[in-house]
């Protein structure tokens, strides 16, 4: 047994010796391979980039590995751009000799292992362009030998560690395109050797610390697109090594420090998109190395004090979007200038074109757009012999375009839109062989479009919208083989569309609407295979559509409305990419092609005011994106196809003025997006479906001029967004639903010419937005006009005529100062009309016999002519008969007494002869004496013309 133990020990010793010899032969420490394989195990190597990482090969031959010269240690691990994912294993920190770790441009996630701070020999840590999360390790300052730290373009958050200032050898710090917050640590100023500091596109706030001036070797400082605020520190002016300073798109305020003029090596300065104010410091003219200066989108004021004669290397100067005045220094430009781009757009420049600029003959891009410049475009514009882009749009330039514009042989883009230019396009424009974009829209130019324009063989976009051009479109348009956009809308062009236009085979947008074009659409349009938009509306085009239009497979937007086109619309259904089709106001006939449904992206179909017939194709129900369907004013018939309920995006459904029949479908209540529903002037019958109350987005509902019956459903009150409700000219009955008070946004309400009964709901007075009209006429409404209607202060028209309304016209209606049309005629109204209604015609109140006041007869005259009621007449007659009877009885009694006295006198006369006669005569002279004659009448002695009383006529005795 002892010998066996001795033999085993010897064997182990021999194996160990062999292992040592092998390690010495191989060179590298075997532990590095172990840690690398553990590192690999955390990666997802789908591309197989690390397939040669195995025990079977020398680690120094593995991909991305660089060993020390003596092959004993791994010095560099570079796996940049290999498409790796997964996470970074902390085991990589066991590679203690590592000087470079480059895992950039992969898809690595997870956090940056804090163990990496153990790599004391690390000089370059490159982890940028991954998907790393978490924060920057707080102990990053332990990497004392680190020279390059690039962690940008990740999802890192948190703050920049203060320990970053403990990296004395650091030269490049790249933390851009992350989500870092907090402020820039003052410890940054300790990095004496820092050459580049890139903090762009984070969420950094606070101020720039003055300590940054300690970075005495800093050449590139970029902190754009953060939330840094405060003033620009003067201390930045001490870093004379700076070549690039980019602080754009932050919240810096205050003045631009004059100390920036000390940055004698500065080549690029961008302060755009801040809140800087005051004038541009003249000290910036000392930056003789400056090549690009961007101060745009601030609040800078005053004159432009910069001079390119001093800034001899300046190539780009952007001062747009400020409040700079028009004064420009006299030495702003010189022929020796190197300025290539000048933008003064969107400032407050006034006066004429600044001629000082024209001395910069080197200018290639000049942008003076969106200012208040006026006067003529100078003919000396020809000095800019190198200009490629001339943007003078949105000013007040007037007069005609100078013919010298044709001298700008390098011109590619000419923007003159939004001015007050007049006159014709100079024929010299045809010399601009490089001209690509010509925008003259929104001016007052006139005359014919010159044929010479078609010599500009490089033209891609022509936009003359909103001018007064006349005459024909040049017949030679087909020469413009690169033309992509032709926009001639809203001019006064006439004549036919030139057939040669069909040879502009790259044309994508053709807008010839709002002109006076005539004739037919040329069949050569079949060659416009790239055409996506064509608008020819508001012309006088006629005839059928060319069948070859079916070949235009890229058409997306077609608007041929308001012409005289006829025939079938089928040729426009060849493209399955159609999104908008408008053929309104033509004479198209025949059926609606079911093939329209093959364009699944259709959003708008407008075929109104044509002569289309037949049924609505049920295939339209397949258009899930359809939001606007207008088939009104045609000869369509049948019922509304139920398949349309699948068009859940429908916002406008307009089927009015056709021959549709059947009931109004209840499934309309499922269209949650419907905003306008017009089924007016058809033959619909049945009731108004209560389900319409589910259309919560409905703004306009018109069911007028049909044969609908039954009551107005209470659910209509659920349409709280409703603006217009028109149910007039049906056979609706019952009362006006009080729930209408919930439709607070109604401004047009028409319920006239129905069979509605009951009273007018007082709740209608709460509809304060009613403005256009309230029309309840030609119904069977009764009761009084609600006083609450006087609250409709915006109402312009009120029609309550031809009902059975009674009572007085409420004085509150007189307060409706906006009302200019009123009709209360043919009711049973009474009393005085409010004085403020005197402006309305008599017809507004006719048919109300008991109304008075202007414009009718005054109430006093009306009272004289008032006809009594039958009860009053009966009472009066009874009173007269009673009074007459009583008077007659009294008179009869008196007459009988007189007759009896007369009889006594007569007897006395007979007895006493003439003596009694004399006595009676004397008595007659002294007093009154009455005698009833043979007719039973009597008269007063003093009044022979007195009126008749009862059936007796009294008169004096014949002897008197």
From TrEMBL:
SUPFAM superfamilies attached to this UniProt entry: L domain-like, RNI-like
InterPro entries: Leu-rich_rpt, Leu-rich_rpt_typical-subtyp, LRR_dom_sf, LRR_N_plant-typ, RLP_Defense
Membrane topology (UniProt): Single-pass membrane protein
Subcellular location: Membrane
Keywords for this protein: Glycoprotein, Leucine-rich repeat, Membrane, Repeat, Signal, Transmembrane, Transmembrane helix
Signal peptide extent: 1-27
Gene3D superfamilies: Ribonuclease Inhibitor
Positions of transmembrane segments: 872-894
Pfam families: LRR_1, LRR_8, LRRNT_2
Residues of the Leucine-rich repeat-containing N-terminal plant-type domain: 31-68
Protein name (database record): Leucine-rich repeat-containing N-terminal plant-type domain-containing protein
């Amino acid at each position: 047994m002892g010998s066996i133990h001795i033999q085993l020990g010897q064997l182990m010793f021999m194996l160990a010796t062999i292992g040592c010899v092998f390690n010495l032969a191989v060179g590298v420490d075997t532990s590095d391979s172990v840690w690398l394989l553990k590192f690999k195990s955390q990666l997802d190597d789908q591309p197989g980039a690390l397939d040669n990482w195995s025990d079977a090969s020398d680690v120094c031959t593995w991909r991305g590995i660089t060993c020390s010269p003596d092959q004993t240690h791994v010095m560099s691990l570079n796996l940049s751009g290999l498409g790796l994912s997964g996470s970074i294993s902390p085991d990589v920190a066991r590679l203690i000799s590592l000087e470079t770790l480059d895992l950039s441009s992969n898809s690595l996630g997870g956090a940056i292992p804090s163990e990496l701070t153990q790599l004391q020999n690390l000089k370059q840590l490159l982890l940028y362009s991954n998907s790393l999360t978490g924060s920057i390790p707080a102990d990053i300052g332990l990497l004392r030998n680190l020279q390059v730290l690039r962690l940008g373009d990740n999802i890192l958050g948190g703050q920049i560690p203060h320990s970053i200032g403990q990296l004395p050898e650091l030269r490049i710090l790249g933390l851009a395109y992350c989500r870092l917050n907090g402020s820039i640590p003052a410890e940054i100023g300790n990095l004496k050797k820092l050459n580049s500091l890139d903090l762009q596109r984070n969420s950094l706030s606070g101020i720039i610390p003055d300590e940054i001036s300690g970075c005495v070797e800093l050449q590139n400082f970029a902190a754009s697109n953060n939330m840094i605020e405060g003033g620009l520190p003067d201390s930045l002016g001490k870093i004379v090594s700076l070549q690039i300073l980019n602080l754009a798109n932050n919240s810096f305020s205050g003045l631009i420090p004059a100390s920036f003029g000390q940055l004698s090596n500065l080549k690029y300065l961008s302060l755009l998109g801040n809140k800087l104010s005051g004038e541009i410091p003249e000290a910036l003219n000392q930056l003789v190395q400056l090549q690009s200066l961007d101060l745009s989108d601030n609040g800078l004021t005053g004159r432009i004090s910069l001079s390119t004669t001093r800034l001899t290397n300046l190539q780009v100067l952007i001062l747009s979007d400020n409040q700079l005045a028009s004064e420009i220094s006299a030495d702003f430009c010189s022929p020796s200038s190197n300025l290539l781009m000048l933008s003064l757009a969107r400032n407050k420049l006034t006066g004429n074109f600044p001629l000082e600029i024209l001395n910069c003959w080197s200018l290639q891009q000049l942008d003076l757009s969106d200012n208040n410049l006026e006067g003529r475009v100078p003919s000396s514009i020809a000095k800019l012999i190198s200009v490629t882009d001339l943007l003078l749009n949105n000013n007040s330039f007037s007069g005609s375009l100078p013919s010298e514009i044709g001298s700008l042989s390098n011109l590619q883009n000419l923007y003159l839109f939004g001015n007050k230019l007049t006159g014709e396009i100079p024929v010299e424009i045809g010399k601009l062989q490089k001209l690509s974009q010509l925008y003259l829209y929104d001016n007052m130019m006139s005359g014919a479009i010159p044929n010479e324009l078609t010599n500009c063989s490089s033209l891609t976009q022509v936009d003359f919208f909103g001018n007064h051009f006349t005459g024909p479109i040049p017949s030679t348009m087909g020469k413009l083989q690169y033309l992509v956009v032709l926009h001639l809308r809203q001019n006064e062009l006439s004549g036919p569309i030139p057939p040669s236009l069909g040879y502009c085979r790259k044309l994508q947008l053709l807008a010839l609407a709002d002109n006076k074009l005539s004739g037919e659409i040329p069949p050569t349009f079949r060659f416009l295979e790239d055409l996506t938009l064509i608008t020819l509306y508001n012309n006088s085009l006629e005839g059928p559509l060319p069948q070859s239009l079916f070949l235009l497979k890229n058409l997306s937007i077609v608007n041929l409305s308001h012409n005289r086109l006829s025939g079938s619309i089928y040729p426009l259904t060849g493209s399955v990419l159609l999104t908008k089709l408008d053929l309104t106001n033509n004479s198209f006939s025949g059926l609606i092609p079911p093939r329209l449904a093959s364009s699944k992206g259709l959003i708008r179909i407008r075929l109104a005011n044509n002569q289309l017939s037949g049924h609505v194709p049920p295939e339209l129900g397949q258009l899930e994106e359809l939001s606007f369907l207008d088939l009104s004013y045609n000869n369509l018939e049948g019922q509304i196809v139920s398949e349309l309920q699948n068009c859940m995006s429908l916002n406008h459904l307009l089927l009015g003025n056709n021959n549709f029949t059947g009931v109004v479908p209840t499934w309309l209540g499922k269209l949650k997006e419907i905003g306008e529903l017009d089924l007016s002037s058809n033959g619909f019958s049945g009731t108004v479906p209560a389900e319409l109350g589910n259309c919560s987005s409905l703004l306009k509902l018109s069911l007028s001029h049909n044969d609908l019956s039954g009551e107005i459903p209470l659910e209509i009150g659920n349409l709280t967004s409703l603006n217009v409700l028109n149910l007039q000219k049906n056979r609706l009955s019952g009362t006006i639903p009080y729930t209408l008070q919930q439709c607070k946004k109604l401004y047009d309400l028409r319920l006239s010419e129905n069979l509605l009964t009951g009273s007018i709901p007082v709740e209608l007075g709460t509809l304060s937005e009613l403005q256009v009209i309230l029309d309840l006429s030609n119904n069977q409404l009764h009761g009084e006009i609600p006083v609450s209607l006087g609250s409709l202060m915006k109402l312009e028209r009120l029609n309550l005529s031809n009902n059975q309304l009674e009572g007085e016209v409420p004085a509150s209606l007189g307060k409706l100062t906006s009302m200019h049309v009123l009709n209360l005629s043919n009711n049973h109204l009474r009393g005085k009309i409010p004085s403020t209604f005197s402006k309305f015609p008599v017809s507004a109140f006719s048919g109300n016999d008991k109304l008075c006041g202007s414009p009718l007869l005054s109430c006093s005259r009306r009272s004289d002519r008032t006809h009594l009621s039958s009860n009053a007449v009966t009472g009066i007659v009874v009173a007269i008969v009673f009074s007459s009877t009583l008077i007659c009885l009294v008179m009869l009694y008196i007459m009988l007494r007189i007759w009896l006295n007369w009889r006594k006198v007569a007897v006395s006369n007979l007895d006493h002869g003439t003596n009694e006669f004399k006595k009676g005569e004397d008595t007659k002279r002294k007093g009154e004496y009455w005698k009833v004659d043979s007719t039973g009448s009597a008269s007063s002695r003093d009044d022979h013309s007195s009126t008749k009383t009862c059936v007796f006529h009294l008169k004096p005795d014949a002897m008197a």
